[in-house]
Amino acid sequence: SVFFFFCAFLSTGVIGVFLQIAIPILYAMISLCVFGNLSTSIKTKSLFSLFGNVVKWIIGTSLAVYSLVVGLQGVSSGIRDGISYKLLKYTVGNSIPIVGGTIKEGVDILLASSITVKNAVGYFAILLLLGSAIGSVLQILALSWVIKASASVLQPLGEDRICNFLGEISSVLQYIIAIVAASAFLYVITI
């Protein structure tokens, strides 16, 4: 139970890192893209690439740390649940006179039904969360594809700077898709 709250706080912290660090870096990448493609004298491609790598590292490291904590929660919860289950059965069996032994056997049914209810509510929450996340990801993905298609169509007709600009904007949108998908992943695991 301690790990659940820790995971909830950690997922909120990871989302905060995404919002406070990764998203501003993406804004900087858009600015670099605009300034780098406005003028031929300003070279920003390397810095743009560096910022892209930093965002990848932020997403990857955050998900790795969160997955490690969730894995530790899974390992410790099995031990804790077994001890809690035996303690509950012993307490019910010995503290309720006359019918304690009968009720002690009913604890299994009670726990199984509570897990079923918890899973049903959890699955519904996961479906709602995934529905909203998938909608957002599909919208951003469609925008990214439209921008890439525009770059492809404009390349034979226009200047290379316009095509580079559109291609770089499309890659920034791919990072935003990764952040939205990672955030949904964190919340699904926390549920």
Report on the architecture of this protein.
By secondary structure, this protein is mostly helical. The chain contains 4 helices and no strands. It has helices spanning 2-38, 45-95, 100-154, 160-190. Helix 1 (2-38) packs antiparallel against helix 2 (45-95), helix 2 runs antiparallel to helix 3 and helix 3 packs antiparallel against helix 4 (160-190). The radius of gyration is 25 Å and the shape is elongated. The two termini are 13 Å apart.
The averaged pLDDT comes out at 79
Task: Tell me the Rg in angstroms.
Answer: 25 Å
Strand content: under 5%
Note the overall shape: elongated
Uncertain runs are none
- Largest sheet at a glance? none
Offer a quick outline of the entry.
The protein is mainly α.
Please render the helix and strand layout as text.
Elements: H1 2-38, H2 45-95, H3 100-154, H4 160-190
Helix pairs in contact: 1-2, 1-4, 2-3, 2-4, 3-4
What keyword list fits this structure?
mainly alpha; 191 residues; 4 helices
